């Protein structure tokens, strides 16, 4: 049974119609065909969307997914709808149509007032079954490239109304002879036929092994590339088809290396032409001039697409890529971002993405001003282009200079709505996280609604995690889903910024309370980090104060599970909330902290934070100090001073906490009467740590202020320690003197 398969859609500017290309498949063979849809009702005021749906309804060959392509081509034809009615008998029509013809189309000039586009009768298809089905054998991207090269255009350019005769590999030598013909139309036709043969996979080995043909193609590009865009477009199209087969790259490396310098120059030339044509299209005074400029612009875009795509594929070899970079491909790709063609934009961004892997290329891209153009493409209605741009931005945010530039370009605000899109949410969250690393980036969040988008998503994640009835979360912990951790990590960075916390506190809708409830309910380490940041902020500290008891419970639970990171974060949060701690919570904290210190299994950071928390609570009020003494805090601290005398941070902090205790006269006596604290303090006067010596001296002065007998004892102990040190030093000096008098000179 015969089946019609849609293969392409083109816009016929002259005939004011759409040309639908399809293939009819039956009995293992495929035959190409086309159908013309005349647009008699198309005018400048026509509803393009409605007309596109009507065309789709009456032409079942076109798949529904091509509705956007139909609309785009109808808009391209709209300017011609009115101009064609004004009379096409102007003498300039022949010249215009001649310029718009491409790839050697046969032209027959008639009398003035008649159409100049000649028609060539379709010849019988005598190709073999393998040749007929070549479009199915060519890779998907290669088929697209062929459509571009033969005039289909990036997004639908001019129409190849004339069916060229079929090609045959046996006639390859004849086609090569056509490269040397004096007529440009003959040469273009020859290159088109060669390109058609090159697109057939069964002929690949013949082409790559034909060194004479490759050299001839390179020579034509080098000598005549500026004379005809169609000519060079066909030849580069051959190399583009070759480039899709990596196995042939080593064989083609030498030929493409010779082609590359000319290709780079032609891309630069066509880039300047394209920019000028785009300006002409915008400033054209008549619809005819606008249509003509638009057509020429499409030719430039088509060539740039084929040229860049070929360079991209061959740049798998580092030598080709280095030559391309030295030849200014970064500047060309940056300029290509000014075009509005989606396919060309996607290709340019993809090429830049590959180059951005290397730091030296990142510097070149920044100098070329590509970041500003990339940022302007976010957000974007085209999903493919959006994803491609976000991927390269994900590379650039890892570089500090690029990250700061993206922040200044307002990328944070541009990503506000994208965070809600499931298709790009992951990459957008990673980008926002890296932007939040810099203080400048965090400040930009405070000025943008993106902050609330992140906060609301965090609340939703926490509520789902804490909901016992959530079937999707059953058996899963917070952070099991990859993006949960990214959202929470981003929130950690934002909560560390004063302006962000101020903005969150200024919101009077209960957002902060809902967020804190979710954070405390999860008990996840990242959540406690956020709570700690809020606790340390002067804007939100008093709101977090109501959760001190819950934090103490989390601390006890973390101590039992041995989670060092969790315990450390809770200790820091409680340290910031010291003034808001009641007596009951303080008792629990003293018990937990003394256990952490005595056990000796906690990490040094946890020990130091525990001692700092003790000092904070003791300094608050005398009742706290009394409770600390009852829990034996002074004995625990004395043990730290004796067991780890060389650990400067721990000893200095322990000594500072002891000074806080000794500052209260009511508990000074019991502390000194219980143990050997006084001797320990005096012994610390000989420490090599100056801060520790100063604190020990301060503690001894506090002791001397209590009772006269303590003051006398302190003076006596100080004198004894000083005298012992003096005698030791004096004894060493006398020994040296005695040895010297005996005839031994230790310095000889």
Helical content, roughly? 55-70%
Relative strand content:
under 5%
The major beta sheet can be summarized as: 3 strands, antiparallel
Task: Give me the Rg, rounded.
Answer: 40 Å
CATH top level assignment of the domain at 131-327 = Mainly Alpha
Q: How many E-type strands?
A: 3
Q: Which regions contain 5 or more consecutive residues with pLDDT less than 50?
A: 85-165, 743-748
CATH fold-level name of the domain at 131-327: Leucine-rich Repeat Variant
Terminal-residue CA separation: 112 Å
Shape designation: elongated
Mean pLDDT: 81
CATH superfamily of the domain at 131-327: Leucine-rich Repeat Variant
Record the SSE blueprint.
Layout: E1 3-12, E2 17-26, E3 29-38, H1 48-58, H2 67-83, H3 93-100, H4 129-132, H5 134-137, H6 140-152, H7 172-178, H8 184-198, H9 204-208, H10 211-224, H11 229-243, H12 249-283, H13 287-314, H14 318-326, H15 329-336, H16 342-355, H17 359-367, H18 370-376, H19 383-396, H20 400-408, H21 411-414, H22 425-435, H23 439-446, H24 450-466, H25 482-495, H26 498-506, H27 511-522, H28 525-536, H29 541-544, H30 548-561, H31 564-576, H32 583-599, H33 604-620, H34 622-630, H35 633-643, H36 648-662, H37 665-674, H38 677-683, H39 690-704, H40 708-741
Antiparallel strand pairs: 1-2, 2-3
Helix pairs in contact: 1-2, 2-13, 6-11, 6-13, 7-8, 8-11, 10-11, 10-12, 11-12, 11-13, 12-13, 12-15, 13-16, 15-16, 16-19, 19-22, 22-25, 23-26, 24-25, 24-27, 25-28, 27-28, 28-31, 30-31, 30-32, 31-33, 32-33, 32-34, 33-34, 33-36, 35-36, 36-39, 38-40, 39-40
């Amino acid at each position: 049974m015969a089946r019609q398969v849609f293969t392409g859609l083109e816009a016929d500017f002259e005939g004011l119609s759409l040309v639908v290309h399809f293939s009819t498949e039956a009995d293992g063979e495929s035959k190409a065909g086309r159908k013309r849809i005349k647009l008699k009702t198309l005018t400048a005021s026509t509803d393009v969307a409605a007309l596109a749906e009507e065309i789709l309804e009456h032409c079942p060959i076109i798949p529904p997914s091509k509705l956007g392509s139909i609309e785009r081509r109808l808009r391209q034809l709209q300017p011609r709808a009115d101009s064609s009615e004004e009379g096409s008998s102007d003498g300039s029509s022949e010249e215009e149509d001649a310029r718009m013809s491409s790839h050697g189309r046969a032209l027959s000039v008639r009398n003035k007032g008649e159409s100049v586009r000649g028609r060539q009768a379709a010849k019988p298809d005598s190709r073999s079954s393998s040749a007929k089905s070549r479009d199915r054998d060519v890779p998907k991207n290669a088929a697209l490239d062929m459509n571009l090269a033969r005039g289909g255009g990036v997004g639908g350019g001019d129409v190849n109304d004339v069916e060229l005769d079929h090609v045959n590999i046996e006639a390859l030598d004849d086609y090569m002879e056509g490269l040397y013909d004096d007529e440009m139309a003959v040469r273009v036709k020859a290159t088109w036929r060669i390109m058609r043969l090159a697109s057939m996979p069964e002929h690949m080995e013949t082409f790559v092994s034909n060194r004479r043909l490759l050299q001839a193609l390179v020579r034509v590009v080098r000598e005549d590339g500026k004379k005809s865009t169609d000519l060079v477009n066909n030849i580069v199209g051959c190399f583009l088809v070759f480039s899709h087969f990596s196995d042939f790259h080593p064989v083609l490396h030498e030929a493409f290396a010779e082609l590359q310098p000319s290709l780079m120059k032609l891309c630069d030339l066509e880039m300047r032409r394209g920019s000028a044509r785009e300006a002409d299209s915008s400033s054209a005074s008549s619809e005819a001039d606008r249509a003509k400029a638009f057509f020429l612009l499409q030719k430039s875009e088509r060539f740039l697409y084929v040229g860049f795509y070929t360079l991209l594929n061959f740049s798998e070899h580092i030598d080709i890529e280095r030559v391309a970079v030295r030849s200014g491909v970064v500047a060309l790709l940056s300029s290509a971002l000014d075009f509005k063609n989606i396919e060309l934009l996607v290709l340019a961004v993809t090429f830049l993405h590959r180059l951005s892997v290397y730091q030296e290329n990142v510097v070149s891209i920044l100098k070329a001003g590509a970041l500003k153009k990339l940022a302007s493409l976010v957000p974007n209605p085209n999903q493919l282009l959006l994803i491609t741009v976000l991927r390269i931005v994900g590379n650039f945010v890892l570089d500090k200079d690029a990250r700061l530039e993206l922040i200044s370009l307002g990328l944070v605000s541009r990503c506000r709505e994208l965070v809600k899109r499931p298709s790009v949410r992951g990459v957008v969250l990673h980008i926002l996280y890296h932007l939040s690393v810099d203080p400048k980036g965090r400040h930009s969040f405070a000025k943008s609604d993106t902050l609330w988008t992140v906060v609301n998503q965090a609340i939703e994640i926490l509520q789902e995690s804490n909901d016992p009835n959530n079937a999707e979360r059953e058996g899963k912990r917070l952070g099991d889903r990859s993006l949960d951790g990214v959202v929470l990590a981003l929130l950690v960075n934002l909560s560390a910024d004063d302006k962000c916390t101020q903005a969150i506190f200024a919101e009077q809708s209960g957002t902060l309370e809902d967020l804190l409830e979710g954070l405390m309910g999860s008990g996840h380490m990242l959540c406690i980090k956020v709570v700690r940041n809020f606790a340390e902020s002067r804007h939100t500290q008093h709101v977090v104060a109501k959760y001190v008891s819950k934090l103490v419970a989390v601390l006890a639970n973390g101590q039992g599970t041995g989670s060092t990171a969790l315990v450390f974060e809770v200790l820091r949060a409680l340290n910031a909330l010291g003034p808001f701690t009641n007596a009951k919570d303080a008792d629990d904290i003293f018990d937990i902290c003394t256990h952490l210190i005595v056990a000796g299994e906690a990490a040094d950071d946890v020990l130091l934070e525990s001692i700092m928390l003790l000092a904070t609570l003791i300094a608050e009020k005398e009742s706290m100090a009394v409770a600390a003494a009852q829990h034996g805090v002074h004995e625990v601290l004395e043990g730290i001073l004796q067991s780890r005398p060389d650990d400067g941070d721990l000893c200095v902090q322990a000594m500072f906490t002891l000074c806080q205790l000794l500052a209260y006269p009511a508990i000074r006596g019991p502390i000194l009467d219980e143990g050997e604290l006084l001797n320990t303090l005096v012994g610390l006067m000989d420490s090599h740590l100056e801060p520790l010596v100063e604190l020990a001296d301060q503690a001894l002065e506090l002791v001397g202020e209590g009772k006269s007998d303590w003051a006398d004892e302190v003076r006596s102990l100080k004198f004894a320690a000083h005298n012992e040190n003096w005698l030791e030093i004096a004894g060493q000096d006398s020994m040296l003197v005695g040895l010297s008098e005996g005839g031994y000179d230790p310095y000889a």
